[in-house]
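Tokens in:
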């Protein structure tokens, strides 16, 4: 599904954020990226989102080299991705329903289809009863679940998360991780960047540790579906 082949990312000024990364993530696998701040976790996710381009090497998604993807093809590529951020990035002047609906509106889905998918996504994260609430009325954990619903409402094949439990207490963090596991169970490929080692260890899944832009340790495949 995801293959990094000798991939490096060097920024202007010479800083090398990633160095010769060789890594495979199978379809339907849940894996964690960990490492100290500055190890390269966020840069690796940005390359997958095509917010950054690699300096060298190859990044393959389903066997296709996305390094060569033209700029006008990027929006279509991103429609197979779902992204969850630490700070939710919700629009506070819109309802929960409208926040989750945004990816479908951008894709030009009909109002009927938007309604069906948004309510299914909210039901999946346990927030259907709060679809008309403002995000301001929700707890931090609930806001993060809205962010997850928005990330999966368009049924992505790949779900990326950058420190999704960074602002949550241990109990809420475990609930969020259980949601990610549920998406993996239905075949979504999930890649999560996190520094919460205790929580990651509880998941009993693959851990990829980055150190100074390199893969220092790879726990191997866990729960993959070919």
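Residues out:
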């Amino acid at each position: 599904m995801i293959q990094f082949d000798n991939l490096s990312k060097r920024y202007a000024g010479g800083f090398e954020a990633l160095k010769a990364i060789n890594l495979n993530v199978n379809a339907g696998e849940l894996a964690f990226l960990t490492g100290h701040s500055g190890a390269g976790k966020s840069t690796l996710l940005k390359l997958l989102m095509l917010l950054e381009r690699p300096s060298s090497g190859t990044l393959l998604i389903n066997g296709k080299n996305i390094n060569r993807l033209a700029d006008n093809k990027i929006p279509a590529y991103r429609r197979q991705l779902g992204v969850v951020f630490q700070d939710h990035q919700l629009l506070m002047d819109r309802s929960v329903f409208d926040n989750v609906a945004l990816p479908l509106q951008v894709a030009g889905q009909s109002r009927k289809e938007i309604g069906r998918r948004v309510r299914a996504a909210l039901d999946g994260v346990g927030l259907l009863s709060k679809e008309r609430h403002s995000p301001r009325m929700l707890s931090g954990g609930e806001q993060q679940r809205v962010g997850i619903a928005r990330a999966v409402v368009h049924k992505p094949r790949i779900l990326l998360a950058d420190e999704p439990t960074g602002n949550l207490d241990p109990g809420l963090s475990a609930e969020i991780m259980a949601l990610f596991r549920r998406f993996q169970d239905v075949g979504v490929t999930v890649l999560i960047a996190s520094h919460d080692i205790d929580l990651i260890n509880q998941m009993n899944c693959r851990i990829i540790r980055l150190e100074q832009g390199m893969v220092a340790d790879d726990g191997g495949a866990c729960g993959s579906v070919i």
